Structure formats: structure tokens, C-alpha cells
Amino acid sequence: MSKKTSRPLKGVTGLVAESEIPYHGVRGIPHIREPGNAVRRKTGNWRIFKPVIDLEKCIRCRQCFIFCPDSAVIWKNHPEIDYWICKGCLVCVRVCPVKAIKSEREQE
Amino acid sequence: MKDLIDGNAAAAWGARLSRVMVVPNFPITPQTEIIETLAKWKETGEWTGEFLPMESEHSVLSAAVASEAAGARTFTASSSQGLVLMKEIHYVASGMRLPIVMVNCSRGLAAPITLWPDNNDFLSLRDSGWLMFFAQNNQEVLDFIIMAYKISENRDVLLPSIVNMEGFILSYTREPIEIPAQDVVDSFLPEYRPKVLLDPEKPMSLGVPSLHEYMYFRSQVHKAQMNALNVAERVFSEFEKTFGRSYGLVEKYMTDDADSVFVTTGSLSTTVKAAVNALRNEGRKFGLVRIVCYRPFPKKELEFLSNFENVIVLDNNLSPGMGGIVFSELRNLATAGVVVSLGGKHIGRDDFVKIGKKLSGAKGEFWYFGEKTV
Ligand code: SF4
Ligand code: SF4
Questions:
Q1: How far lies B225's CA from each of A8, B105, B231, B274, in Å?
Q2: Which one-letter DSSP state was computed for residue B117?
Q3: How many angstroms separate the Cα of B260 from the Cα of each of B254, B291, B323, B339, B349?
Q4: Nearest partner of B104 among B128, B127, B124, B74, judged by Cα
């Protein structure tokens, strides 16, 4: 991971008088200065149901790969789900023409 | 009947029971479920009004102005960016004296983008001429919509109303609430019979230019707002007689023997009440004053704040360059103002207990950033 992640500002906590709030100049502006860092944001912990592909049934049609709204299906001659990113929307389950993707309840 | 529903469903029920005839709409989190619920009822025939999906919130309110002017009881809902996109038409609706009722699920305004609640979107209507009500729970969301129509449609008022609930905290939280029977609501809220309306048989214009008389007409909006104070009190007591739930322009909680009070709005109040209880358990005489009706502003009802040693105003909103909005309106009566929970930043009972203790005897303007760093 790059060091250029936009770090949270040194925080202010608790009860403060208005006059004590520090001013941070341009660091106090909500910019993300590094492109393409969304992969580092784990969205896998949003899942309530987890899509699981049965590669025996899979006919390699790529529908799941095309329709996954978060590009969580990676293509390696066969589909593979990146569970760090997969948020569990189950679009893939819906689009799979041979019902090769099952959803399983996350166990916490 | 009793049911366990969230604030959005309560709002949809409020609209349905008020027999709204037209609902122009546009989706936005965390309000969309209100519109979805009405759409579902339209499909099943449980609600038979006009459902008008529009291309933006600006169009939504424009359509609402048109349908209300044509004599149809009109309802809509929005939130945050959507509410501020309507802004231009808010002033048109009040100036044309159209008793539209809408709901806002408050949500902090971008930038940065947030989905969580604060009241800056709602309070941006402060000067628009709309009647403004803060609901603290889902029952109030439903009840206030029904009452808002009755207050708004009163000939001494004829102004639009907006009922606010904090997004997520109310909009997506289920609470057991009483859904009144349709015939009881019908007896309380009769059919809308406007005196002035657009009619193809008798063409006329509404909201026309008026240079010299502009000031006069805006004075009428102000007078109508001030009339609404009395009308609201009458409607509240009639509501209590019909439905058994009592409301006021201002709610007082444990203020009788208190020496210090918090001043709150909306759903913050329920958490602060828990803090008042906790402070009482430690022997501190705290109470709470909740502003229910924000416009018209219940000045008279709030004068008694001068009796307390500490009057701590909690604002989950901010006018940058001024401070908390409610605090700035109560400057002559309040001892301290605290900006809290912007963008829905977590704040709980114990935080309010801490604020109450630390600000007893303190004067001035404060911020509570919560215990976690930014
Ligand atoms: S559940 Fe949704 S996010 Fe996850 S792989 Fe399937 S389509 Fe993609
Ligand atoms: S949609 Fe189903 S069959 Fe097609 S590639 Fe994905 S898992 Fe395989």
C-alpha cells in the first residue's frame, strides 16, 4: 500500500470551545489525492449473503464477470470472486444462466 | 391499529390517511422508501392518487405547486441535496400560499458527501415561508403530516408545511406506532376545498410579478405564519381530543423544578431525555425543552427559558461563520450553544451527560466532536 493514502487529520475530540478548533489549511479539504485507491476499501464486510460459485456447473459464459457492479468477479479462465470487494448484492446469482452461483448466509 | 414500522413507512401512512391526491416524486436516500411505499399502494389500489415520477426535485416541487394550485391535496418528500435543489420553488409555494405538505428526511449536505443526518438541509428552509415541524419519533411523523394539512389549509394560514425526521435515525428505524383508522382521520381532516384555484373554466394567473406590492405580499406570508401559532395550538388540542395524543409548539420535559435545561429539536431529544434522567439520578436538576414547531418560531412559549441558570442549546446543524442555528436564534435566552453530531456523527446519552456537566456555569459557543478522532 502506498504511503500517499490521505490520512485522517489529527483529530479533535470531545468538547471544545469554538476558539480552540484548529485550522488546518488545505489539509482540511476533503480531497483524495491518489487515484485508483478504491481497491483498498474493504466492502466485503457489508455482505449478509455470500455468493459461492460451483465451477463444476459453471459454463464459463462470463455473465457474472460482466454484470458484477463492483468488478468483484475476476476472470482467470474461470470466474473467481474477490471477497475483499464483493459486497454481496447477489446480482451474479441472478444473472447466472445455469444457477452455478449459490448464496450462503455469512456467519459473522 | 398498532404496527412496527419505520419513519418512512409512517410518512407514507400519514400521506395515505390524509387522502393526498397527487404525489410528484424523485428518489433520494434516505427518503426513497416513502415514495416506494406509496408506489406499492398505488399498484395494489390501496392508495388511488396520482403518482408522478419527475426528472428532478426542482420539477417535483414545481409539479406540486401546479397540482396544489389546481385544488388537489399534494404531498411529496425529499432529503438533503434534493431538498436544496427544490429551494427556488419553496419560496414560490409559500408566496402563492399553497398548502402543500412535504416530508424531509434530514441528511448532511455535501461536500464531503454523507448519507447520515444533520439538520442543515431542513433548516435551509428557515426563511422560505414554510411551516416547519420537527418530529422526534415515527408516531410524530405520521401525526404531524395529518395535522400539517389541517394547519396549512386553514384560511388564516394557507402556507405549505414541512415535517422533518432525521434520516436513518427515524427513517430506517422501526418503532411500534399507532396507525389511526381512516374514518377517524376523515372526521378530523375534511376534504380540501380551496377558495382560489386554477380552473380551466375561469382562467387566471397565480404568483404574478408585483413590484411595489411585493413587500405587502411578503408581509402577508409573515402574518399567516404568526396566525399559524394559534391555529396550530387549536389543531393540536383537536387532535388530542380525536386521537388521544397531545402535542405542543414546545415540549417541556422535567422542567418544573429544573435549574438547567437542554434545548433540542427532533430525534436528538429522545437521547437527551435519557441523559436528563441520568443527570437526575446523580442529583443534578436538568430538564429539556424541545422546539417542535420551528416556523413559526414559538417566541412566547420560549420566554420562560430565562428562568433557568443554564440553558444549553444543542444544534445538529451549523451556519458556518455564525455557529449553531437554533443557538443563534436564542442568543438572548441561552447560556451556551453546542454544535453536535454534524453529518450524523455518533452521539449518545453519556456524551450529553458529559456536556451537561461541563457546561453547567459555562458561557459561550462549543463543539462536541465525539470521542473518536475525525
Ligand atoms: S454478489 Fe454482487 S458484488 Fe459480489 S460478486 Fe456477485 S455481483 Fe459482484
Ligand atoms: S454466470 Fe454462471 S455460468 Fe456464467 S461464468 Fe458466471 S458462474 Fe459461470
A1: 45, 23, 10, 33
A2: -
A3: 10, 16, 21, 18, 17
A4: B124
How far is Cα B100 from Cα A82, in angstroms, rounded to an integer? 49
Give A-chain residues touching B370 at CB under 8 angstroms.
Answer: 13-14
Distance CA B34, CA B293 (A): 22
* Identical topology for domains B2-243 and B250-367: yes
Which residues of chain B have a CB within 8 Å of the CB of A13? Answer: 369-373
B contact residues 314-333, partner A, Cβ 8 Å cutoff? 323
Report, at the CATH architecture level, how domain B250-367 is classified: 3-Layer(aba) Sandwich (3.40)
Has residue B341 got a pLDDT over 80? Answer: yes
pLDDT band at residue A10 under the 50/70/90 scheme: low
What is the residue-wise DSSP string for B312-332?
A: EEEES--BTTTB-HHHHHSTT
Rounded to 5 degrees, what are φ and ψ at B17? Answer: -70, -25
CA B158, B164, B166: angle at the middle one, nearest 5?
Answer: 175
Ligand 1 proximity of A96 Cβ (cutoff 6 Å): no
pLDDT at A107: 85
- Lowest mean pLDDT segment, chosen from B67-76, B144-153, B203-212, B279-288: B203-212
Give the least confident one: A8-22, B24-38, B61-75. Answer: A8-22
What pLDDT does residue B290 have?
98
The interface pTM score, or ipTM, of the predicted complex is 0.85
Q: In Å, how far is A34's CA from the nearest CA of chain B? A: 17
Query: At which residue does the C-alpha cell 446519552 appear?
Result: B349
Ordered by start, the domain boundaries in chain B are: 2-243, 250-367
The string of DSSP codes covering B42-58 is: HHHTS--SEEEE-SSHH
What top-level class would CATH report for the domain A34-105? Answer: alpha beta
DSSP for B291-313 reads E-EEES--HHHHGGGGG-SEEEE
Q: Which of B315, B311, B295 is nearest to B303 (CA)?
A: B311
Q: pLDDT for B186-198, tens place per residue?
A: 999 999 999 888 9
Alpha-carbon distance of B80 to B119, in angstroms, equals 9
A35 against B24, higher pLDDT: B24
Domain boundaries, chain A: 34-105
What is the third-level CATH fold of B2-243?
A: Rossmann fold (3.40.50)
